What we know:
Elements lengths: L3 H7 L4 H67 L3 H15 L4 H18 L13 E4 L2 E5 L15 E5 L3 E4 L5 H8 L19 H13 L9 E4 L3 H9 L20 H4 L34 E7 L7 E2 L10 E4 L15 E4 L8 E2 L3 E4 L2
Parallel strand pairs: 3-7, 6-10
Antiparallel strand pairs: 1-4, 2-3, 4-11, 5-11, 6-8, 8-9
Helix pairs in contact: 2-3, 2-4, 3-4
This protein binds calcium ion.
Amino acid sequence: MGCHFPEREQGGCNEGYQVSAMKNSGSRFGGLCMVRLCVCLGMLLAIAFPFRGHAETEEQIKALENQLVEMRVAAVRKALAEKNLADAQAKLKELQKLVGDEDARYKEMAGLLHAASESAVSRQPDMEPVPGLKMKWLPPGTFRMGSPIGERGRTMSEKVHQVTISRGFWIGVYEVTQGQWKAVMKSNPSHFKSGDDYPVENVSWNDVKQFCERLNETASVPRPAGYVFDLPTEAQWEYASRAGTDTALNSGKDLSDEKFNCENLNEVGWYDYKHENSSTHPVGKKRPNAWGLYDMHGNVCEWCRDWWGVYLGDAIDPKGPKTGSMRGARGGSWGNSAQICRSAYRSNRLPDQRTFFLGFRLALVPQD
Ligand SMILES: [Ca+2]
């Protein structure tokens, strides 16, 4: 390497030295070519192998993803086969998180669940004890009552637990209207006397129990053996509202705002949307849930049968504490913010309290 530098410094060199230098030079160029070749090969390998490895990894990830999706699909099918619609809904949601709404496998499973829900609610004929007071059969089932930590607008009283409704029951498709109350009680205590198709309000829990007793005592009102007209328990109410969903709203959506600008709630319920709502509305004007029940969110808040108390864990047919001072009420009203209208939200009132926020939904339930 160093032999030609002295040559340059000296200003020339003999031929032999030139030949020798050229040979050396040629050898050096040959070495450089080899180096370049190796570098190029190295670069090619570096480029080619990572791509090949990447492609293999991609394929492996895709295969794993498909496997996971198939497992989710199988889980939905299994829950449907076991007629556990709440579980099927939960598994369907997991599938949805993986593949989105537009995936053919999700659509197929959602269709099967919808058909199973329809089939379940149509096993018993609808009831109509008072003209217009339509009641729908809900099948027995298991669901997750309460709201998960992180649900927008959640309160501490909504601890999630598993509840089994062991026997099916009927529940009003709509809130009881002023026309229906008048037909049974021959009076109209409502504050907003806007029409017969508006929900009755300004009725206490005690007033509502009298309404139920009146129906139970009237021989001409059809009633299956072993069933009585009553308010739903909080568990029955939430089971009915959710209709298989485990989201804040029974449309399968969560709140888009927990106060007064919740577009998602505006689709399914009357509440104080943009502070523009100042009264009740005719029943059945918003979108129903999957079981065909209207106004579970908002319009009038709905009395429940139970004394109010904290949740005590997983339960079968929970009915609340044996004694208490307040009765449960659910669903929020026309004058509330969005968070109060969630399926899981719990409120309570004194049983003799009457307000223009509060009405009820009739149930026909197994006799205790
Ligand atoms: Ca309501």
